[in-house]
Design goal:
alpha+beta, Fic-like fold, six-stranded mixed beta sheet, elongated
Length: 491
Amino acid sequence: MTPLSEIIFGTSANKEAKRLRRLLRGGKARKIAPRLYTTNLSDPPAKVVQDNLYEILGGLFPKATLSHRTALEGKPTAKWEIFLTTSYARTVRLPGLTVRLLKGPPAGAADKPFMGALFIASQPRAFLENIQRTRSGAAASKAVPRKELEERLERILRLRGEKALNGLRDDARRAAKDLRLTKEFTALDKIIGAMLKTEPASGLKSSLAKARAAGEAFDPERLRLFEALFSALRKTPLRETAETLVRSESLRTLAFFEAYFSNYIEGTRFEVDEAREIIFEGKIPSARPEDAHDVLGTYRVVSNLSELRKLPRDADKLWALLSTRHEAILNARPDTRPGELKAEINRAGDTVFVAPELVRGTLAKGFEFYKVLDAPSAKAAFMMFLISEVHPFNDGNGRIARVMMNAELVAGGLRRLIIPTVFRDDYMGALRALSRRGEPAAYLRMIDQAQLFSASIDFSDFASARRGLDEANAFKDPGEARLVVPKSGPA
């Protein structure tokens, strides 16, 4: 008996048996199952068993192999069932736990020692065992559903690439001979082949696997984020302000500050007067021609109302609009491949965005949510997050996301949103909360505040707009001040 353990196993050894009897007589231990005792006198037996799961399994079934779905999932089922492969078949019921003992081969060289007295099946063995058919009428399924199995294989392909999936298949081929699971390997080989487009896909069950086989693979984690935002937008109406500006000077002023702030927030920083000379006078500073063209390219897109009123009718049109607008913004930076799908995975801090081969499929899946939203404000909020989260290009993703958002508002006759410098941390923090934790509340609050701010500025002429933006602290860095809505609203 281990002094620090609350679990005691029945034994025929005289010394240990006597000690156990003394503990039982003294009320310092109790029996909770055959050959199983505990010094924990307060917790229910089921909790004691579940808290000491692997110690108990190792003590009762030494050298058994955690196998089948237990090995693949790495935990008991929701009903607290564990599958072990031993030299005999039997079901053992303990408080809070059902142990399914399956007759099969002992641990092999590729299986790993686990928690002292147990082994756990290797990944190739676990996949083969989970393709085994479950006997009709069996009390519990030893294998995960085929759909889940395919999704696990697709995840390996998505996150680690073809080399890793082919490596798994090669290892499974070798293991199948020792385990006498050649039929199961044939089935596994067909699934992997279908995902790699070397086998027919007709037998696949998972939508992820089918999409992969059809060349329309998508990122399922992003899909869950899109679903969370979609649900929140259905429940929470967003603020909308009708656009009253009709004069060309007013519209140019609004477009100028949209382009100015959208670039400033991404690190392309000019003083307002410098940016004004770039946009309205064509004065390109010799020291920073590419930065100047970024600002100018953004302005040309956001000031073109006929272009902004074009909305995507389907996923292909969405990509076409994205590509065209992105190329127009970054046309002075050929090294970024403007308008072309990114070549490598991009990152921002701890956030890893969608892999290149999943971009088109993920955009298409996101479009399914977007197209059924009704309000322009909801479609705008969803569109910006969709593009920001997918990050389809090598560079300029934040700018194109905001352009696509404001296109929805312009097409709906609403005031577009401006994200000023002082509001950058609020903006980025709200995106991170949704991206990393799936929490849309902060994102919706950010959109609402940005709408309130944008609607409060008088863009009728440049001087009025600049005065209102100064009142709002719009040009200050986030650490210097907070965004405020000017007391004097638009004229």
